[in-house]
Design brief:
- The complex is a heterodimer.
- Chain A contains 12 helices and 7 strands.
- By secondary structure, chain A is an alpha+beta fold.
- The radius of gyration of chain A is 22 Å and the shape is globular.
- Chain B folds into 3 domains: about 90 residues, Butyryl-Coa Dehydrogenase, subunit A, domain 1, CATH 1.10.540.10; about 90 residues, Beta Barrel (Butyryl-CoA Dehydrogenase, subunit A, domain 2), CATH 2.40.110; about 150 residues, Butyryl-CoA Dehydrogenase, subunit A, domain 3 (Up-down Bundle).
- In chain B, strand 2 and strand 3 form a beta hairpin.
- The longest helix of chain B has about 30 residues.
- Chain B is globular and about 70 Å long.
- The chains are: A alpha+beta, B alpha+beta.
């Protein structure tokens, strides 16, 4: 039976993260946006708090049989965390130490040795460490199967050549999960997944991107030029790819688990904008009259709340399906597409509703208006999400329509 | 922790409803054109217990929760929308545990009472007044009407001789009796009908819209999977695929809003505003789905060779019977502000 009971664990997670977002993130948010960077004192605070991107989903199946029997809650807790921290500032969430989007592929197909090796750095309590995920290329964004970065088998490992772009935390990452192809003519079957460590000869950071929003978060171009990657950094090992053509599936499985998180981030920003708009309107318009007398405003604010709730529920459902190991790519895409679409509209409406003549625009609302735009783009554009949803709809009746 | 799966009992009841819907689907057109659900189907539904889903076990019903009932209603309506709605909508009183009688009329002032006069009033143990448009089963027995009184809205049981019904033409739900009801009779039983009951009513209505939304989505998908244009099935064009994806999202979002509100209502929370929001969202989703279904079918959607045009008519008629969109938005808005809002022009 559907259940919406908030457990003590959820309440605690939510309350703690909201407190952290309110007291540690929001006060730094505008300055970090202006500076396009997060000051080091934040990372010291984070280290003390124990908050990290390790809240991102891992592959619980790797933890043993007892774990398998228990219903997992990782993804559900992660979406709660994502919403709360993004309510503070999504740039800060994306900049939290941890494996980031690189975590899921290492978890999903990494060998035990690889998981231990690559995740062990995050136990360091003295210094923040980061992972990253490099799939997108200048000429292969939505068309993931069309990546052109090449990997060539050489004695002892592989040589990678190519350029990756729009890589979150790319310039600060200790290691990056990199997708490359052994032969573009093989399409998806040619994909291989590597972990490339910082300092590897031939691996360098290209330009930093200057963005419309999420400016405090590092987004970089990564360049691989005859970059030698040892055999032991091929995720899952060579045998894994000989048995199945998993490289592309890894990329897709990563999206299935990260899209709910991105949707939750959009929900957090939309909620922040809706709340801020309500506060400002109540401040400016009360004037001795109850707000309902301004009916159009009241309806607009209520409607924002309704859409935030709907987006949150779609997000929760996709997270639930992920936790109980049900097919979730359609639900994940629905959550991402709906939350992205509605959040973009809500942030714009919040700015519009509060834009009085003679009043300076609210800097938070302006920032969220800029930040939110990418939520309809990254982790799969709005169009890609609709492609996924439509394909799944037709697959349900056993039809492939060629979308 | 939040979850979205169904227990075995709810699944079984929904499956039963779905099976009945599938068997009834072939008679949809006949029912709509003939102005009534075939008697054999009505009897079958009765034997299956589809009218007794909400009724308590003491009263011989299944005693299912509002969530489970809604799940079953959605499943049934998704298979045979016109017949299912015609059978079950007149039983809306079941949402409050009222014994079923096949007649329920809302003539109360409700949350919107300060905006429109009550259709029916209760004074000195008698109800008088008129409800201009409501649903009724073919031979309704004792009916339930919401009437405004000095003590607020009351749910009143009225004997058949205390009312007169006259048929009202409407463009949709033509397999169901759509009537105007004029009351002048003694009340046999009455109870409160406040925000809580009205929220239950909203939550009882919403699954009908989900069912229509799902039916239209599935029909459009099936058509798009077979219909060819420009050398391939039209589902293979993004213009069609994306439209279906958007419909699927809106229907799903509406269903989840309803589920959450119904769950919160079952926990005893005040969900009036959430329930109004859920019903409003469900209506929008159903309209979007039915309208998009016609768009996918093109000219074929505009003619009655396919059910799409009927479903569009049905959805709008159902919407009129259950409170229009702006009224629900208004209810939501003003409830949030409490009493202070009343009297605001």
């Amino acid at each position: 039976m559907p259940d919406f009971l908030e457990t003590e664990q959820e309440k605690t997670v939510r309350a703690y993260l909201n407190y952290f977002a309110r007291t540690e993130i929001r006060p730094r948010s505008l300055e970090a946006d202006r500076m396009q960077d997060i000051q080091p004192d934040f990372y010291q605070t984070v280290q003390k708090s124990g908050i990290s991107m390790e809240m991102m989903p891992r592959n619980p199946g790797s933890s043993g049989k007892d774990e398998e029997k228990r219903e997992h809650t990782t993804l559900r807790l992660s979406v709660l965390a994502s919403e709360e921290l993004s309510w503070g500032d999504a740039s800060f969430l994306l900049s939290l130490p941890g494996p980031g989007l690189g975590g899921p592929p290492v978890s999903f197909i990494g060998t035990k040795e690889q998981r231990e090796r690559f995740f062990s750095i995050f136990k360091d309590k003295e210094k923040p460490h980061f992972g990253a995920y490099a799939l997108t290329e200048p000429e292969a964004g939505s068309d993931v199967a069309g990546i052109k970065s090449r990997c060539e088998a050489v004695p002892g490992g592989y040589k990678i050549n190519g350029t990756k772009t729009f890589i979150t935390n790319g310039s600060r990452a200790d290691w990056v999960v990199v997708f490359a192809t052994i032969d573009p003519s093989l399409g998806r079957g040619g994909h291989r997944t590597f972990v490339v460590e910082r300092g590897t000869p031939g691996f360098s950071v290209g330009r930093h991107h200057h963005k419309l929003g999420l400016r405090a978060n590092d987004t970089a171009e990564l360049v691989f030029s005859d970059c030698f990657v040892p055999e032991e950094n091929l995720l899952g090992g060579r045998a894994h790819y000989e048995q199945s053509k998993e490289g592309f599936k890894v990329a897709m499985a990563t999206f299935d688990s990260t899209r709910p998180l991105v949707a939750a981030m959009a929900v957090g920003i939309a909620r922040a904008a809706a709340e801020r708009a309500r506060e400002l309107i109540e401040e400016r318009y009360m004037l001795g009259r109850p707000l309902p007398r301004y009916r159009a405003l009241r309806e607009a604010l209520d409607d924002m709340d309704r859409r935030v709730r709907a987006a949150r529920l779609l997000t929760w459902k996709s997270a639930f399906l992920g936790d109980v190991r049900e097919p979730q790519s359609r639900a994940a895409s629905m959550a991402k597409a709906y939350a992205g679409k509605e959040a973009v509209l809500i942030c714009r409406e919040a700015l519009e509703l509060t834009a009085d003549s003679g009043e300076a625009p609210d800097p938070f609302l302006e920032k969220w208006f800029r930040d939110i735009r990418v939520f309809d783009i990254f982790e799969g554009t709005a169009q890609v999400q609709r492609l996924v949803i439509a394909r799944r709809l037709f697959e349900e009746i056993g039809v492939k329509v060629g979308l | 922790m939040f979850r979205f799966d169904w227990d075995d009992d709810s699944r079984a009841v929904a499956e039963l409803a779905r099976e009945f819907g599938r068997s009834a689907a072939a008679a949809e057109r006949e029912a709509a054109e003939g102005g009534a659900v075939p008697q054999a189907l009505r009897k079958q539904a009765e034997e299956l217990g589809l009218f007794d889903l909400s009724r308590s076990q003491d009263q011989g019903g299944l005693g299912l929760s509002a969530l489970s009932v809604g799940h079953a209603v959605t499943a049934l309506v998704a298979e045979a929308p016109t017949i299912a709605t015609s059978l079950l909508l007149p039983e809306a009183g079941a949402a409050f545990g009222a014994p079923l009688s096949g007649f329920f009329a809302d003539g109360g002032a409700g949350a919107l009472g300060y905006r429109r006069p009550a259709g029916v009033t209760l004074e000195h143990g008698r109800v008088t007044g008129r409800v201009a448009f409501t649903a009724a089963s073919p031979e309704p027995g004792e009916g339930w009407v919401v009437a405004a009184s000095a003590a607020g809205d009351r749910l009143c049981r009225v004997a058949p001789d205390g009312r007169e019904l006259s048929e009202v033409p409407a463009m949709g739900l033509t397999a169901m009796r759509r009537v105007a009801a004029t009351f002048d009779g003694a009340v046999q039983e009455e109870s409160d009908f406040g925000a809580k009951e009205r929220a239950q009513l909203f939550l009882a209505y919403a699954p009908f819209f989900h069912g229509y939304g799902r039916a239209a989505l599935h029909y459009a998908r099936g058509y798009a999977a077979e219909r060819k244009a420009f050398g391939k099935t039209i589902g293979g064009f993004q213009a069609i695929g994306f439209l279906l994806a958007d419909v699927a999202m809106e229907v799903e979002a509406a269903e989840l809003l309803w589920q959450e509100s119904a769950w919160r209502a079952a926990q005893g929370e005040d969900v009036f505003r959430f329930a109004a929001d859920a019903l409003r969202t469900a209506k929008d989703a159903a309209y979007f789905a039915a309208n998009s279904c016609i768009a996918v079918l093109g000219g074929h959607g505009f003619v009655d060779d396919h059910p799409a045009e009927r479903w569009l008519r049905d959805v709008e008629t159902l919407s009129a019977l259950t409170g229009n969109r702006s009224a629900l938005g208004q209810a939501s808005e003003e409830t949030a502000q409490g009493e202070e809002a009343h009297g605001v022009a």
